[in-house]
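Students often ask why we bother encoding 3D structure as a string. The short answer is that it lets us treat folding as translation between two languages. Here is a chain of 124 residues written in the first language.
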Amino acid sequence: MWEKKKEAQELKAFLGKGAEFSGKLIFNGSVRIDGDFQGEIFGQGSVDVGESALVKANIVVSDVYIGGEVHGSIEVKEKISIHSTGRLFGDVKTPVFVMEEGALFDGRSHMVEASEKKNIRTVD
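And here it is in the second language, the structure alphabet:
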């Protein structure tokens, strides 16, 4: 189901399996990570962490889809979805939190209520 929304956004960056990157990623659109990333991720769009990925980063984006392993704090405006193969170690702030059976989450979550979510959108 979440695949449909990702396909609607233009892919702006792709870090392939076996590739490593350290630094700050700032983007609009959609980003796919299948390699190793360490640093910070900021964007107006979605981050898709593939099954082979290892991400050690603080992330502030609209949507996050996790199929691999993520360490760090995550703040999303719309939704975080952890696939059955996904592992998240860190704190999350989100209005919608979806976990498939088999997913691992070790951290704290803060669910933004609908009224808070509206305030977040008007700030943009």
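Translate back mentally: Helices lie at 2-8, 114-123. Keep this in mind for the problem set.
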